[in-house]
Amino acid sequence: MIIYIYGLKKKKVNTMSKVQWTNEQALAISLENQNIMVSAGAGSGKTAVLTTRIVQKLKKGIHAQQLLVLTFTNAAAAGMKNRVLQKMKEDPDLKNRVHEIEQAYITTFDSFALSIVKKYHYLLNLTQDIHIVDSSMIDMQAMQFLNIIFENLYEKQDESFLKMMNHFTVKDDKEILNCILNIHKKLDQKADKQQYLQNYMQTYASKESFYQYQKEFLGFLKDIIGQIKLSLDSIYPALSEKEEDKLNAYFQLFASKEYDDIYTNLATISTIRMQTDDEHLKEQKRRMDQQIKKLKELCFYPSNHELILALEDAKDYEKVIVQILLQLDSLLMAYKKQYQAFEFVDIAKMALSLVQNFPFVRETLKNQFVEILIDEYQDTNDLQELFIQQIAQNNIYVVGDVKQSIYRFRNANPDIFIQKYADYQNHIGGTKIDLTSNFRSSESVIQLINTIFNHLMTGLIGGAKYSQGHAMKYGFLRYNECQKDHPIEYITYTNEQKQYKDEDIELFYVVQDILNKIKEKMPVYDADLKEFRPCTYQDFAILLEKSKSSEKIQKLLQYYQIPAVIYKNENLLEGDLFHALYNIFVALQKIKVNQLDTTFLKAYYGLGRSFLWDQSDDTLYFEIKNQTYFHSDLYLKLKQLTEDATFLSNKEMVLKIIDTFSIYERLILIGDIEANSHRLQQMLSIAQNLTDLNIPIFEMGSYFKNLMQENKKIEIPSAAPLKNQVKIMTIHKSKGLEFPICYFILNFSKQNEEEKTNKITYSEKYGIITPFYQNGVGDTIKKVLAKQDYDLQALSEKIRLFYVALTRCRENMIIINKKTTNHAKNLIECKTFKDLIDYIASDFEYQKEMDLNTLDIHYRYLNAKEVEKVNKEQTSSMNHHHIDIQKSPLEEKEKASKVVQHLLSKQEKEKMDLGTKIHEIFELTDFKQEKATVPPLVQKFLNQDLLKNIQQAKIYKELPFIFLQEQKSYSGVIDLILEYADHVDIIDYKLKNIDDEAYQQQLKIYANYVFYLLKKPVFTYLYSILDGQLTKIAD
Questions:
Q1: For residue 605, how far is the Cα from the chain centroid?
Q2: DSSP string spanning 270-323?
Q3: How far is residue 556's CA from residue 504's CA, in Å, rounded to a whole number?
Q4: Of 206, 218, 464, 632, which residue has the fewest beta carbons closer than 10 angstroms?
Q5: φ, ψ for residue 918 (rounded to 5)?
Q6: d(CA 573, CA 571)
Q7: pLDDT digits (tens, 9 = 90+) for 178-219
Q8: Inter-residue contact 612 to 666 (CB < 8 Å)
Q9: What's the rounded Cα separation, in Å, for the pair 523 and 158?
Q10: Cβ(740)–Cβ(442) below 8 Å
């Protein structure tokens, strides 16, 4: 029997398996001595191909350090490294060379660029002590510099600046400040921003460029006129003779050559009336009227001369903005160099300057690597591409899929992939290989996807001509063994009565459908078991364009006892922990300057009633009303922290705050212990960033306040979910994943128009775009052209996002869509996912209208307690089960840890304090980072034989627990849990002595608790930190 898995076709021969590749996969693995692009469609086995190619290179004698393997996220780099390592361990020729992978350049673009900059720092007049700081901090500093620049211009009475501000501001200049900051950030992607700005006026505001804009604008108007003509041709047979008298004006419009002709002839157009019952003709007439209206809105200049004058007027504003941007860039770069603190985009530009300006650096890198392999090439940005071209020598191997380029908002440039694909297709500079066999999805799913994207991806729109080399072939034949009646379900509904919200209708249908499929035991293929089995909750995914409704969906599912998890990055600036810490920072700042005003009292009250202090509202109210809070324990602690700050670094201060308020111990009160521990780690990183920029801890509250006022986020990467849960996620988050059953719902989100509607914007094609002023503010033709370009790019990205969504599905796809009558008739008119779905609705073979009477829609779940508390994003897949506590009386709660039975001597207390500090070091150190970078005590620990495979472990540190066993309730904190695929190791740290029998009893309780949670064999160890001795405790 032949089995296909993720692009690999395995044929069982006795106990050995031989991999059979498709011809295209085999070529992608073996082709050499030239630049190669592998265009790999969804589910085509690109990861397996890339991994195998790397392994084949190693088998030919190439050292791992001679390969440069680049990707875009740390997780992807770690995954690739682990896959290569596993392949090497399985290969007799390579298993003795696995140590090479430790130093291999399998990394992200950012990390590799940073390593180059640190190595050659002296060439850039930098020290090696380079810091990477969060972009939000740099943005805050950039805004401060902008305010200084504006103040100077106001003071100097700069005529051009004042003219711009008078024309474009109403109450204040905040909108203009934000617009210029946004342009500054976009221009940061330029390799030489200063030179770009110095040449700007000649490039974008010269007579030649004005002529080009005019030419493009005229072409745009003529395209609309052409559409009007097509519509008129369609309805012409239905016009009465009386209406034909109006046609001459239309014919003159159609014959217009220049803008002035169009403007003049458009004024003579009058509305044509038509009497017909033909719905098609009515629709054509409606479309023609819309196009005429659009044409009139665009032709608001009385003449071509006025059109040019508007550009000339805007030119003055552009010049002012360019000068401001030049000053801002100079100030900001000087600031960064002063503190040796940079963003990753700065590092990328520094790395590029090194290979461009220093030949020996470029040649060293060229000669170092036999091949440069880049994964997810469609996500490359301009700086990364320029850098790679500098160090390449006909040895680039790129893998990607332009159809899955969905990170334009992160500066990914799909045009790089598109241009290279076209060149390599014509054998210019390299060879392209298409991987089109899909080993993920069923034949029905693939056929539908092909049909849909033959219509949607045209080349100009979407970035790929789908019908030419991109259509998928069915590859995983096992699905044929279990045919489903309706693998693709297109569910529609009408909501004319508007008794319920559209969102609720769709959500309740999904709940009902999941329960039905579980009840009916719908079969799905299990890749691990290599057979079909009844579906479980883990097989379902709900894909959304926006994350807005995620929590509501989760709450509804849990109400019906359906376990559900949300895949999304957490925002540090939310939640009980953040607000408690924020109130501490605000209070410290106010105490420092002795300004105990309303802001302080709000912070004091918020902290007092938080989980960190848990004071009653009445007590806090009494303290504030009677001003007795000066004597409260809470105030005295804050006062002491303020004094401590004079001799502690920011990071030490955060650690002191954590200790003062026993934050780690109190996290159990708010749940999500692992996620909140990560939040504390992020707080420590921010504190260090502030230190790098010479900003004191007292400014931390102001920093967070500014971020919240600007609706900014500090994202913490999402964590691994629990296993048997329905997954809820955005399409962006789903990229790279696959699910047997996918729901695609809530498709009516509107397009974000902010980039188009800002008063001052930036376009890569048309430069800085400002209004003109002539007895009022108006748009130039640059704004019109930029909007058209933006809409085209946004539509292309939306179609690619739609492709990513549909290709996540393996076997059963359910698309829910509200029926409406006003559909987009042309692809270019589509703005939302709903528009796209309406546009291709006829492609769905199985369509069913929902009966709303069968849905028990209610809102009880919004106020109900959760059936099971499921942490939103846990770092590891440890289940936290609820325990049914019987009504029989329990014995007194006991501590699992050893109990001290006597008063501590001074020496014993000092020893315990030392142990606590060392525990903190172990807790705060990342055990998976390079050993050479960790503290010596931790390094000694990590060198133990037991920890040689720690890279494969899921790590839990300082895990608090409460555990019921034999009518006794135990509580404690487990120092370290290492969860592997087949067992779990628990390690308890001791300062020195590990011979006490009480420790063994303590570890026995730990083991029982962890076995209860993870259902894996558990082994326990004691580690003497000072002796460096690790002892296994007998079962």
A1: 35
A2: -PPP-----HHHHHHHHHHHHHHHHHHHH--SSSHHHHHHHHHHHHHHHHHHHH
A3: 10
A4: 206
A5: -65, -40
A6: 5
A7: 999 999 999 999 999 999 999 999 999 999 999 999 999 999
A8: yes
A9: 73
A10: no
Q: Give alpha helix (H) positions in 661-699.
A: 663-666, 673-692
* Position 3 pLDDT exceeds 50: no
Tens digit of pLDDT for each residue in 453-484?
Answer: 999 999 999 999 999 989 999 999 888 888 77
Q: Which residues contact 349 (CB under 8 A, 6 or more apart)?
A: 191, 383
Each residue's pLDDT tens digit, 798-808: 999 999 999 99
In eight-state DSSP terms, residue 806 is: H
Distance CA 756, CA 76 (A): 34
Give 543's strand partners.
729, 744
Residue 888, pLDDT score = 34
Q: Using CA atoms, how far apart are residues 603 and 620, in angstroms rounded to an integer?
A: 12
Measure Cα distances from 1002 to 221, 879, 919, 975, 1007 in Å: 80, 22, 17, 12, 9
480: enclosing H helix or E strand: none
Cβ proximity of 804 and 326 under 8 Å = no
Within 673-814, residue ranges assigned H as helices are 673-692, 700-709, 731-734, 754-757, 781-806
Give whole-number Cα distances, 787 to 243, 413, 779, 782, in Å: 35, 18, 11, 8
What is the reported pLDDT for 885?
Answer: 29
Q: 267-273 contacts: CB < 8 A, separation 24 or more?
A: 270/246, 272/232, 272/235, 272/239, 272/243, 272/246, 272/247, 273/243
**Tens digits of per-residue pLDDT, 715-733?**
887 655 667 899 999 999 9
The residue behind tokens 């009022």 is: 776
Name the nearest CA neighbour of 288 among 276, 278, 296.
296
Contacts 24+ apart (CB under 8 A), 822-830: 825/283, 825/287, 827/455, 827/456, 827/458, 827/461, 827/795, 828/461, 828/792, 828/795, 830/795, 830/798
| Residue carrying structure tokens 């909140």 | 676
Q: Using N-to-C axis directions, what is the helix angle for 673-692 and 135-156, rounded to 10°?
A: 40
CB within 8 Å of 95: residues ≥ 6 apart? 88, 89
DSSP for residue 865: P
Tokens describing residue 371: 């091949």
By residue count, the chain amounts to 1035
671: left (phi over 0), alpha (psi -120 to 50) or beta: left
How far apart CA 187 and CA 296 sit, in angstroms, is 34
d(CA 555, CA 997): 47
CB environment 912-923: b (16+ within 10 A), e (fewer)? eeebeebbeebb
